[in-house]
Amino acid sequence: MPEFRNFTINFGPQHPAAHGVLRMILELDGEVIKHADPHIGLLHRGTEKLIETRVWAQSLPYMDRLDYVSMMCNEHAYCLAVEKLLGIKVPERALYIRVMLDEVTRILNHLLWVGCHGLDVGAMSMVLYTFREREDLMDVYEAVSGARMHAAYYRIGGVYRDLPDRMPQYAPSPWKNAATLKVVNENRQGSLLDFLEDFTERFPKYHSDYHTLLTDNRIWKQRLVGIGTVSPERALQLGFTGAMLRGSGIEWDLRKKQPYAVYDQVDFDVPIGVNGDSYDRYLVRMEEMLQANRIIRQCIDWLRKNPGPVMSDDYKFAPPPHETVKSNMEALIHHFKYFSEGFQVPEGEAYAAIEHPKGEFGIYAISDGANKPYRLKIRAPGFAHLAAMDEMARGHMLADVVTIIGSQDVVFGEIDR
């Protein structure tokens, strides 16, 4: 009797290492991948179509839900596209706040990525360390916006409000006695900038702990080195961006090549890989966290010295300050019109892209002169990366599929939209 070694199996759609609702049909020869066919659409929420039914300002919270690990970065791209159509100037302080919180978001994204990537390939304790640091940065999100994840903090024309002068503190509870409270509240006595500065001083030590746990760990290297290798030429042809492209050795970073906000006024380096494998992509993202930490420090220094407005003063496109609404008739009218019917955006189209933690995240907006978008297209970085799954996995073992998905850092909210 002949021995059949060909299998066709389902990977997902609810596989714990799929990082979302992904169904992949794998054709195997024994344990070797012959073909990988990713099926998406199981999460489809119609975000782009829903946006056409909302006024421009109301669509901003949809951005948080696209990639629920990089919330404020998504908001930034949307604001940039609408601001380009409107031609409005954003106050410089708001630009520095945006850059600082973009980099906080980059660290948040990469912490979750390295923790879960470790979990996927068997490094069980990694996620406990990374979530400890995520907790501090989630507190920063909560302090500025009131929400730990879906912040909706950026606004067309600036940001919702200035940075708070005090950090929320832990209250007494059955789980925290007086001694514990003193320790956990120690670095929360000042403003948000004080708290964040304290975090940036502690973070390099934490970061070196991650390197100790993973970088030279022989099991980690056996699972990542030489897996999912993509050449620089092929990475460009496949439409890779972000760490996927830089891991293959191409120095392309929108923050350097097409600066937006105040990225041309801060100092940082762009790490690149050599081999284009999963291990190089890991090293690139690890170094990106340290560079993000460096940018945050520079923004903190600037924000301390330069107070000022954080929202455009053109009340056609931005709500007037709360204190004027009850005493000024004109402000009340602006407020009413802004929140009831929104604002008209001049006819035209604009594309704005940012260096999202996962790659180039772009918003292409078309306006027909109404108070709602005529059409809005989201350029999600993970979509192009997932499309390369078949090419990256072919010839590897079944267990390596998990490593490759992890190294792509995909999130299905933005892929399925």
What does this protein look like?
- By secondary structure, the chain is mainly α.
- It has 18 helices and 8 strands.
- Helix content is 48%, strand content 12%.
- It has a 3-stranded antiparallel β-sheet with strand order 1-2-3.
Present the secondary structure layout:
Layout: E1 6-11, E2 23-29, E3 32-39, H1 47-51, H2 60-64, H3 71-86, H4 92-120, H5 126-145, E4 154-155, E5 158-159, H6 178-184, H7 192-214, H8 218-224, H9 232-237, H10 242-246, H11 254-257, H12 278-305, H13 322-325, H14 329-340, E6 348-356, E7 359-367, E8 375-379, H15 381-387, H16 389-393, H17 398-408, H18 412-416
Antiparallel strand pairs: 1-2, 2-3, 4-5, 6-7, 7-8
Helix pairs in contact: 3-4, 4-5, 4-12, 4-17, 5-7, 7-12, 12-17
Please sum up the structure shown.
This protein is mainly alpha-helical and 417 residues long. Helix content is 48%, strand content 12%.
Give the helix tally.
18
Spatial separation of the terminal alpha carbons: 49 Å
Instruction: Report the biggest beta sheet as strand number plus sense, adding barrel if it closes.
Output: 3 strands, antiparallel
Number of strands: 8
Proportion of residues in β-strands:
5-15%
| Average pLDDT taken over every residue | 90
Radius of gyration: 23 Å
Helix content: 40-55%
Structural class, from secondary structure content? Answer: mainly alpha
Using the alpha-carbon principal axes, give the shape. Answer: globular
**How are helices and strands ordered from N to C?**
EEEHHHHHEEHHHHHHHHHEEEHHHH
Q: Report low-confidence residues grouped into runs of 5 or more.
A: none
Strands of the largest sheet, in order across it?
Answer: 1-2-3
